[in-house]
Every structure is written in structure tokens, then in C-alpha cells.
Amino acid sequence: MEIVLTGSIAFDYLMKFPGYFRDHILPDNLECLSLSFLVESMVRQPGGIVPNIAYTLALMGERPRLFATAGEDFAEYRDALERSGVDTSGIRLIKGEFTASFFVNTDLANAQIASFYPGAMSAAGDLSLNELEGKRPELVLISPNDPRAMVRYVSECKQLGIPYIYDPSQQIPRLTDDEIKEGLEGALALFVNKYEFRMIQKRTGLSPWEIKALTQFSVVTLGEEGSVIYQGEKELRIPVVTPNQIIDPTGVGDAFRGGFLAGYARGWDLEICAQMGAVAAAFCLEHEGPQGHSFTPSELVARFREHFDDRRILDALIN
Ligand SMILES: Nc1ncnc2c1ncn2[C@@H]1O[C@H](COP(=O)(O)OP(=O)(O)OP(=O)(O)O)[C@@H](O)[C@H]1O
Ligand SMILES: [Mg+2]
Asked: Which of 221, 237, 306 to mutate to test the pocket of ligand 1 (most atoms within 8 A of CB)?
């Protein structure tokens, strides 16, 4: 299946401060607050929603295409994604801009001070799905991105008659109530976590049943409680695959989506798709960073079969 993923591409700059931010804040001098923290470590991790999802999809044998914007510092990241099997030909480089960058400094109490610079992501709304070259997508994923881009892709998918999965997640606070409704109406599916599902209800005034009725199916992830799929009258609960250890939860939602979509691309039923998502999420939790995990198709299938019955459907991944 020709899947096109739209959403943010970013670098995450993660720093550690070997003290407590609170010890350096002078409450009586806030009008001239001026702080600089000498950090003991910094890593730059590849991140952003769609490269994360695409990375897991590629591990599962798919070749997803990214449709997004990145900055002049993207060259090395692009090479790494291509080596992983991701099609980056649809990524537009924005001259004079950095790739979106998330800077976060964490202290010993896990308090965080972060800044997100959207950089090249701000230009994503200038891209049009009408300009997409090559094969016509059979499915478009609309993930967190510049809000203008998300609104545009929803309306273009509708005009072009391309099925889309609406995955507004972190960007819900930046979309208007009407934009969220527009996104839901006519989507093939909605993909959110439990909190986001509640936020959508509050913002749109729609009941869970009304939201479910707008899409063919909805996937709501519930963290360590697994996930639930709503399809018509049906409600399917999918348990987690317990990780051997949790090293880093960053990107677990993206890994789940990658696993789910890999099954969906092959036309497998939604239960198997969500089980694939749960397996991918466990691999992700066991490694540092949103693209730190790696597995072969055989390892994936073996892990899957420790937890779920695939009725030999997954043989297709290893043959
Ligand atoms: N502690 C855990 N143990 C096992 N599996 C987990 C755990 N946390 C999450 N998962 C798996 O990952 C899926 C997505 O998790 P979650 O609902 O936390 O996503 P999210 O809130 O969107 O995460 P993110 O912080 O990446 O945005 C879950 O449905 C589950 O399968
Ligand atoms: Mg999420």
C-alpha cells in the first residue's frame, strides 16, 4: 500500500543538569530573572513524529514516503532515514532554516525547561498534496505538524478523495474546535491517546459515540493499559506487550503507530494491526530514543507469537 506520512521532522537536543533548577530561582528577583545552567551531557537525537513512525514501518518491511519540511541541517538525518528504508524524496528543504528543534534540559528532580523552535516546520503549510510526485497515495497520515499544514492536508485529502488517518495528538491545543471537527469528519480513522480523546470530546462537544460514528474506526491508546479499537458497534481491547525493561518512553506512541500501519498496509485485520503496534511499542520502550530500537522480521514475529495468535498471518513477513 502506498502510504504517505505528513507531520513534523525534528531534532531533539537533550541535556542533563546535575543539580536542581529550583535552587537557582530567586522568587524575589523574578523581574530580572537570568539563568544559565552548565549541563553535564547533551545528545542530539533524531526525532519528529513522522520519521519516528516511518522508521518502525521500515523495520517491518514497508517503504513509507515522508511528505514534510526540514532545514539545512537535515542532510545526515536524511541519509540515515534512507539507509533505514524510508523514502525521503517528498521532503522539501527550506533554505536558511533549521529543522524543527526541541531543546530540553532535565534536572535531578526530573524538572524540565524546554523550548521548541519550529524552524522549517513552519513552512509545511506551503506544501500541497497536489504537488506530490510519483504514485498516488492510497493512504495519508495527518500527524502533528504546523497547524496550517494539518488543516490544508485534511481539505486536500477530501478534495482528492484520498483516505486519511487523523492523528492530531500534541497539536490539538493549537487547532480550533472547527478545525478538529473538520479533521474528524470524513477521516478513515482517528488515532489518539486516552487524554487526547477526552480533549477532543471537550473541544468539539461530541460524545465518544458521535466521534466514533464519524470515522470507520478509531484507535485510542491507553499507555500501560494497552489500546482499544472502536469500529462500528465493536470494541476491541488489545493488551500491552510487557517490555523486559523500560529504558526510555520517548516515541512509544509513534512506534505503536508504525507497527499498526505496517499491518494495515498489508490489509490485515485491525486486531492484528494493534497487536503489531503493541509489539513495536515494547521494542521502543526497551531502547533509548524514538528510533533506538531495531529488530529483524524474524525477531518481530517470534516476539509477536509469545503474546498473540496471528493464525500464521505473519508468515508473510518472513517468507
Ligand atoms: N508501560 C508500557 N508498557 C507496555 N506497553 C506500553 C507502555 N506504555 C505504552 N505502551 C504501548 O504503547 C502504546 C501507546 O502508548 P501511549 O498511550 O502512552 O501513547 P502516547 O501517550 O501517544 O505516547 P507518546 O508519549 O509517545 O505520545 C500503548 O497502546 C501500548 O501498547
Ligand atoms: Mg502520542
From this structure: 221
What is the number of alpha carbons within 13 Å of residue 159 lying toward its C-beta? 9
Distance of CA 168 from the midpoint of ligand 2 (Å): 9
For 51-71, the pLDDT digits (tens) are 999 999 999 999 999 999 999
Cα 224 to Cα 226: distance, rounded to the nearest angstrom? 5
Residue 272 included in any domain: yes
Residue 170 maps to a domain: yes
Q: What residues are in contact with ligand 1 under a 6 Å CB criterion? A: 193, 221-224, 226-227, 240, 242-243, 251-254, 256, 278, 281-282, 285
Q: Rounded CA gap, 265 and 252, in Å? A: 20
Ligand nearest, relative to CA of residue 171:
2
In tens, the pLDDT along 123-175 reads 999 999 999 988 999 999 999 999 999 999 999 999 999 999 999 999 999 99
CATH number at 196 reads 3.40.1190.20
**Angle at CA 34, nearest 5°, toward 33 and 39?**
130
Catalytic residue positions, numbered = 254
Q: How far is the CA of 35 from the centre of ligand 2 (A)?
A: 31
* Residue 304 confidence class, pLDDT cut points 50, 70, 90: very high
- Full residue range of the structural domain in which residue 183 is found: 3-11+48-100+119-309
Protein residue with least CA distance to atom 23, ligand 1: 253
Per-residue pLDDT, averaged over 248-259, amounts to: 96
- 54, part of any domain: yes
Q: How many domains does the chain have?
A: 1
Q: What is the DSSP string of 107-130?
A: -TT--EEEEEE-GGGGGGGG--GG
